[in-house]
Design brief:
Length: 338
């Protein structure tokens, strides 16, 4: 059974392709490689023994995207990962972010509708909740005004999918709202490939531990949290990848209750930045040189998931302990070297 994976050479996409192939599904990846590398296919093949089909296409190219769907109309579902995702860059380049993320989604939906590929899993984000008043957030927690153009593309994308599903009753979709994906495949054959200076905590931390960066800045210890540093729900990327396989089966087997559903994909546990540093040191035996500095503009204080709905409805839950996730991230960093 063929599954189209847009953005499949990216960080979360590549881990999901591994899980799909290990589940016996056939994958065709579509990516323009704007934020990934073709060598990722070697890693996927190294883990699974199968080299997935790959086509280099820019999803904002509507004729090329429709042509792709015409040739893959036998696919049963699409997992749509492809998007630009750097929050800070999206503030500086709003038009590029809206153009890329929204046109890519609309072209994918058009291709699906036109060629009868009826099932979609979409990468959304807990960013749609902003700083929620009540924690943990459930799927009923109201979405907040997005803090960045990137975040707004997720809110708008969810709305585009919701509105289309109202009139395309033959189509089905699931949006997965990821919390903070981290880690790497335990084989260390695939992982996150940050371009330039990392913005996210874990790649900055592992690069500091590897001596590539001198010091990790901890952005604030004066938040209203137990140790003063912000709280997040860090989800292992392989656990996250597995949630996509479960969502695909739910759609393929018609177990979805509505034709547009959305789920929180997190662990249900909050960890502070300082707790992450301590867990990394415990897991690896490597000390992290860090310094508390001022808050980072735009950061929210705390967010973590209530995963009851995902656990009960999908029969999925996060399994990998945080120390193992951080050890995997470290093994991947060591493989990348300096
Ligand atoms: P990534 O950048 O590693 O992967 C995205 C892939 O999409 C890249 O390979 C890129 O080349 C491709 N792409 C981008 N625009 C494209 C286009 N126009 N045409 C074809 N390919 C295109 O990012 P990721 O971390 O794997 O994220 C995957 C998805 O999950 C994204 O939609 C992202 O917004 C979402 N998400 C990520 C996080 C996170 O923290 N990583 C959190 C929540 C949601
Ligand atoms: N942090 C540091 N130092 C760093 C980097 C991060 O202290 O060098 C802190 C941040 O202040 C925050 C925490 O580590 O408290 C996590 O920060 P990340 O940048 O790793 O992740 P965010 O929670 O800010 O954002 C992530 C993704 C976004 C996504 C959001 C919600 O980067 O794309 O989760 O899904 F929108």
């Amino acid at each position: 059974m063929k599954i189209i994976v847009t953005g499949g050479t990216g960080y979360i996409g590549s881990h999901t392709v591994v899980e799909l192939q290990q589940d016996g599904l056939e994958v065709v990846i579509l990516d323009n490689l704007v934020n990934s590398n073709i060598e990722v296919l070697d890693g996927i093949e190294g883990i699974t023994g199968i080299r997935p089909a790959f086509e280099k296409i820019d999803l904002t190219d509507r004729p090329a995207t429709l042509d792709f769907f015409a040739r893959h109309r036998d696919a049963k579902a699409v997992i749509h990962f492809a998007a630009l995702k750097a929050v800070g860059e999206s503030v500086a380049k709003p038009l590029e972010y809206y153009y890329n993320n929204l046109n890519a989604l609309m072209n994918v939906l058009s291709g699906m509708r036109q060629y009868g590929v009826h099932n979609l899993v979409f990468s959304s984000s807990c960013t749609v909740y902003g700083q929620a008043d009540v924690l943990p957030v459930t799927e009923q927690t109201p979405r907040h005004e997005a803090e960045s153009p990137y975040g707004n593309t997720k809110v708008m994308s969810e709305d585009i999918i919701r509105d289309l599903m109202k009139v395309q009753s033959e189509m089905n979709s699931i949006a997965l709202r990821y919390f903070n994906p981290i880690g790497a495949h335990p084989s260390a054959l695939i992982g996150e490939l940050p371009v330039g200076i990392p913005n996210n905590l874990i790649p900055y931390l592992t690069q500091t531990a590897a001596g590539i960066r001198e010091q990790l800045s901890v952005f604030g210890d004066d938040y209203n949290t137990p140790d003063g540093s912000p709280l997040r729900d860090y989800i292992d990327v392989v656990d996250l990848a597995k949630a996509h396989v479960v969502a695909i089966h739910r759609l393929l087997e018609g177990r979805n209750k509505k034709n547009y559903e959305y789920f929180n994909i997190g662990t249900g546990h909050a960890l502070s930045v300082l707790e992450i540093i301590q867990a990394f040191e415990r897991a690896t035996g490597v000390k992290v040189n860090y310094k508390i500095v001022g808050r980072r503009a735009g950061d929210i204080e705390k967010v973590w998931a209530d995963t009851t709905f995902a656990n009960n409805e999908l029969g999925w839950s996060a399994k990998v302990p945080i120390e193992e996730t951080l050890a995997n991230a470290w093994r991947w960093q060591q493989r990348l070297g300096k």
